[in-house]
Write a structure and sequence with these properties.
mainly alpha, 3-stranded antiparallel β-sheet, two-stranded antiparallel sheet, 5 strands, about 55% helix, elongated
Length: about 150
């Protein structure tokens, strides 16, 4: 590749990470938990990941996935140099850790006792998005190893 020209092509793993981060971010504004009554003081009867009682615990899922997506987009598409990694860990290791903990926390919210609240569409798609980020991180680690 000639000097000054960048590689703007994303690998399949990076595409999955970026898509998972976008899904997680968008659906974090949907109902995370739904309430049969007006428990949260709003008309929808639910609360998003940014709402009272869930901030910052559920929001960490979103932040982890968005950090992963931003790192991929900034380094690959916008050619920003973010270094080799953070605190001695490579970006692949950072992605694996963030994806794992985002997925684990999403699963925990799915399985935990909700005190009469139902599972909202936001939680379901945040779980899908965080699992996509973890899957993308695993794919990227395999791609870099090959």
């Amino acid at each position: 590749m000639p000097e000054g020209q960048t590689n703007l092509k994303l690998t399949p793993g990076e595409i999955v990470i970026a898509a998972g981060a976008l899904v997680t971010l968008i659906f974090s504004f949907f109902d995370f938990f739904s309430a049969p009554s007006n428990s949260f003081g709003n008309r929808s009867g639910g609360v998003s990941a940014w709402g009272d009682g869930l901030l910052p615990v559920a929001t960490i899922i979103v932040l982890f996935c968005v950090v992963m997506g931003l790192q991929v987009v900034l380094t690959k598409l916008l050619n920003v140099d973010l270094g080799e990694g953070i605190a001695g860990f490579s970006w692949v290791h950072v992605h694996l850790a963030l994806g794992f903990f985002a997925t684990l926390e999403s699963l925990a919210f799915l399985l935990v006792k909700k005190g009469g609240l139902g599972i909202g569409i936001g939680l379901i798609f945040m779980l899908i998005g965080s699992a996509a980020c973890l899957t993308g991180a695993i794919l990227v680690s395999k791609e870099r190893a090959a």
